[in-house]
């Protein structure tokens, strides 16, 4: 787990000055047409579909100071079936809060940082976790040692079309951690746990 692993953003994004500090505004638009033929593997069934998935992400990053920043990311998606062989059209549309967090970096000039809010939890290999969770996470980092500990629990629905917490995540408290010792640029030892 790292702070926003794998996120790739353009070097030059729109910036505005808000109360004397930079607000970075970014986003992306995705359009994905799909056609699925005979999805039930029975050529006699009328189940061919075509849809045009669309997703627009909006991100706001506000750096109040060198050690305090805020981040919000939301998705607006629309997924209509533009053709169904059966004639029964459907669509999905919603607004989703993907991330919203506060980061206190290098607290009191120490190696410790604290991140609170809905944040992405992932390890760089994405073997054991890759999701956004409501959590509190503390980091420690030096030249050759990095460690983090997080506690997470879903606090409510984050989608406009869903007013409940998924049953798999409801009332589940997760404890997770990661320690990396990198003694050479190409060699490290990683330990992680999830409870």
From TrEMBL:
It comes from the Bacteria. This is Alginate export family protein.
